[in-house]
Amino acid sequence: MTGTVLASKWDMAFGFVMFLRVLFGSLPTWVKATLLGLVVCGLLWDGLRRVQQRRTRVR
């Protein structure tokens, strides 16, 4: 036995989600909602920017 621990590909994602739950768990609801809104707006902005870039490359 080599002592190697096999992990699934979802272990890192699960660990990250649990880290975020602990990190933001004690914050008030309005702070969580504000942070979530900022993240969603950033993702939408990035997605729309990528779509625009793809359209300009196609033409």
Overview features:
2 helices, 0% strand
Describe this structure in words.
With 59 residues, the protein is mostly helical. It is 75% helix and 0% strand. It contains two helices and no strands. It has helices at residues 11-24, 29-58. It is flat and about 55 Å long. The protein starts with 10 loop residues before the first helix and ends with a helix.
Count of individual helical segments: 2
Runs in which pLDDT lies below 50 for 5 or more consecutive residues are none
- Total number of strands: 0
Terminal CA distance: 58 Å
H/E series: HH
What about the largest sheet? none
**Into which percent range does the helicity of residues fall?**
over 70%
Helices and strands: which structural class? Answer: mainly alpha
Annotate the secondary structure layout.
Elements lengths: L10 H14 L4 H30 L1
Summarize the structure.
The protein is mostly helical and 59 residues long. It has helices spanning 11-24, 29-58.
